[in-house]
Design goal:
Elements (H helix, E strand, L loop, with lengths): L2 H24 L12 E6 L5 H9 L8 E2 L18 H10 L4 E5 L5 H7 L4 E7 L2 H14 L7 H7 L3 H10 L4 E2 L5 E2 L4 H5 L12 E4 L2 H4 L1 H15 L7 H11 L4
Parallel strand pairs: 1-3, 1-4, 2-3, 4-7
Antiparallel strand pairs: 5-6
């Protein structure tokens, strides 16, 4: 991580701790829900609307004792080396989250993680997106915004056109070599999405498509609000007020 990256990360953590103190004081008299304040957990497939989901969940910071920790995203793969994370890493990450945190993660549907997220301590949301849009977003991200990404040099120095990069994002990159000289697993888009699919059918997870927020924003926002209110029913806020807070927090640009 660069010096600038470390500085930004430190600043994010300082803001987070300061916000927790502020929120705990502000809502010190708020009645806790039956099972306590949950962790608001935003799970997403990479390049499928992670930032949109973060905006939705960050709106809850305005109405209750929640604090944004979504800058500390758990990734299933290390961006710099391409090394895969294990389910045990995800479980350890979950254990670091505190009641009232707003967190973001690219979790595979590891059985241990599904079991952990089914507990009342977590309120999970899952966002996914049309894979055709995912691969386009992936190309722009790796090429223009991720110089430390394991595939950056290949996308910018070996591949010379958008079409070549798009084809690679669709078909994957067999036998790719990382900066340490080791093979990096980069399967095709179908194989990359497969480990996330089961989140759609988890009964305690609200699964929403990225496109839902364009096709029928009000309905999508309403479902996000309802999922929250079914678990957190002690705050003096109406469904419409919560929807308004979410709507106001969504910034498409």
């Amino acid at each position: 991580m660069t010096l600038q990256g470390r500085t930004i990360r430190t600043a994010n953590w300082l803001r987070y701790y300061a916000k927790r103190l502020e929120q705990n004081w502000r809502y010190r008299q708020a009645a806790s829900p039956k099972d306590g304040w949950p962790v608001l957990l935003g799970i997403s497939f990479p390049k499928s609307g992670t930032n949109l989901l973060r905006q939705v969940l960050e709106a809850f910071v305005q109405v209750g004792p929640f604090s944004d920790r979504s800058f500390d995203v758990f990734a299933a793969f290390d961006a710099k080396t391409g090394a895969a994370r294990a389910s045990s890493d995800a479980v350890r990450y979950l254990k670091t989250l505190r009641p009232g945190d707003v967190a973001a993660a690219h979790f595979h549907t590891w059985p241990e993680v599904i079991q952990a997220c089914s507990q009342s301590a977590y309120l999970p949301y899952f966002m996914y997106r049309d894979p055709r849009d995912v691969v386009v977003s992936h190309v722009f991200y790796v090429t223009n915004r991720a110089q430390e990404h394991v595939h950056y040099n290949y996308y910018t120095k070996v591949l010379t056109t958008f079409d070549e990069r798009l084809r690679t994002s669709i078909l994957g990159l067999p036998n790719a070599v990382g900066p340490d000289g080791k093979l990096v697993d980069f399967p095709d888009i179908g194989q990359r999405f497969e480990p996330y699919v089961a989140w759609i059918d988890q009964p305690n997870v609200l699964a929403q498509r990225y496109e839902d927020y364009s096709i029928n924003r009000q309905a999508a926002v309403g479902k996000a609000a309802d999922h929250f209110l079914q678990r957190v029913d002690t705050l003096p806020i109406t469904r419409q007020q919560l929807m308004d807070a979410i709507e106001k927090n969504i910034v498409p640009k």
